[in-house]
Amino acid sequence: MMSEPHIVIVGGGFSGTAVAIHLLREATSPVRISVIEPREHLGQGVAYSATDPAHRINVPAARMQLAGDEDGAFDRWYRRYGDFPQDPFAQQPDGSVYPQRGAFGRYVEAAFIDVAKAHGNRVAHLQERAVDWQAGHIVTSTGRRLRADSVVLAVSHPPPRLPVAVRALAHHAQVIANPWQAQALSAIPPDGRVAIMGTALSMADVVASLVRQGHRGEVMAFSRHGLLSRPNAPTNLPKWPGDYLTGTLRQRLRQIRADIVRANAAGLPWQVVLDAVRQQGQDIWQRMSAGEKRQFQRHLRRFWDVHRYRIAPQGAQAIADKRRAGTFRHFAARLRTLGAQSPGLRLNLILRGGKSHQETVDYLVLTTGPDHTDLIASQPFLHALQQAGLIRPDPLGMGIEVDISSQASPQIWVAGPAARGRFGELMGLPQVADHAQQVAQNVLETLGCRQLVLS
User: Fold this and answer.
1) pLDDT in tens, 350-361
2) pLDDT for 74-92, tens place per residue?
3) How far apart are CA 242 and CA 249, in angstroms?
4) 3-state SS class at 158
5) Do 255 and 359 sit in the same domain of this protein?
6) Distances (CA, A) of 395 to 291, 300, 400
7) In Å, what is the CA distance from 227 to each residue of 176, 198, 204, 445?
8) Domain that holds residue 97
9) How does 383-407 read in b/e, with b if 16+ C-beta sit within 10 Å?
10) What is the Cα–Cα distance from 184 to 176, expressed in whole angstroms?
């Protein structure tokens, strides 16, 4: 009698837990699943393990759920089982809710627990790390050796690369390189002058956290282009009918701009057009030439990101309140040097256009985002897989190279943002949720544990 196939998922954040859920839901014959995740709870990862109540999901709860679930599944769960009654700031005037970020992680974990009950000891959460690959076995941080028929890499975002100008003062008490650590901002006094390096979603989270803890001092945010993430539009707007699958990159860009003008003339915000582009994003990306992809990365990615990944209303309100009080400003600049001076820090900046500029602050907070170009080098297990010839960086430096099935090699699959070099639009829901389901289906079909559905 053949043993049951063993599938090991490395990473138990949203992507890894969603893959596990779909493996269990869709397997037509028994499989064993091990999820390697050092956190106590599955489904949370970097994004949804946030404990600061100021950190919220940045789309309405009604648009977030696992693939295959009914629309609004998380919204209904949150109103019934979440902390909705205790969170007076969650609901917006249009009736939509933007929960604290950890609530979605708890929803995903609850879904995993529910589906795993029927599978007993075939499902294991190993609260450790994958650290090496030896003779076809995964080696964990406790010395455990696991043989797997299939390995799904659902790895976390890599840490930000420390800017060169900051490295000499990386351990200075007033340089906060990781604002996501518990109590990382608690030492900042209410009247402290704060500089934030980075102007996108993470910056908004930091401002929201500061406002929550009663900060009233000046906050200045800067980045090379000074672009702020945009706000969400009201819910229940009609879908925009645009088709962006054909044409060159330049022609698509021209069409998108023209459609935004047409939408505005019809009384609709630009967000409806960008949402239509997002829904076609993976197909658009895969139709682009390698040269167009590089061009997009070099010139358009920053603009796409600030329009695609929008600020939760509560975060936007925190920035608006500080701006109204005259204690928030942002601008385009790069950091040339950072110096320590009693009692604070001196930032020597080069403004957009080349002019030198100096700022003196009490604290510098880094929100420059994950460095996907160093993903494989940042994790020993991934480095070991690369040394074994099982994975390699994708040509655009966005993560791990995979084929159209999200396979890096015959035994190795990649779920989540690390596969975005192939799929492009793979950082937010619902694309990540759909991708997790597809990876689970592909793994099961390869193992002969799911009937192939022919279209």
Assistant:
1) 999 999 999 999
2) 999 999 999 999 999 999 9
3) 15
4) coil
5) no
6) 11, 18, 9
7) 21, 9, 12, 44
8) 6-159+371-446
9) bbbbeeebbebbebebbbbbeeebb
10) 7
Report the DSSP beta bridge partners of residue 292.
none
243 domain residue, yes or no: no
DSSP string, 303-316: HHHHHHSPBPHHHH
Number of separate domains in the chain: 3
pLDDT in tens, 178-226: 898 888 999 999 999 999 999 999 999 999 999 999 999 999 999 999 9
Do 133 and 262 have their domain in common? Answer: no
pTM reported for the whole predicted model: 0.93
Domain membership flag for residue 240: no
Whether the link from the prior residue into 343 is cis, omega within 30° of 0, is yes
Cα(288)–Cα(248) distance, integer angstroms: 8
Asked if residues 9 and 154 have their Cβ atoms less than 8 Å apart, the reply is yes
Q: Report which of 93, 92, 94, 91 is spatially closest to residue 78, judged by C-alpha positions.
A: 91
Q: Which of 337, 367, 435 is nearest to 176 (CA)?
A: 367
What is the amino acid identity at position 197?
Answer: M
Evaluate whether 12 touches 37 at the Cβ level (below 8 Å).
yes
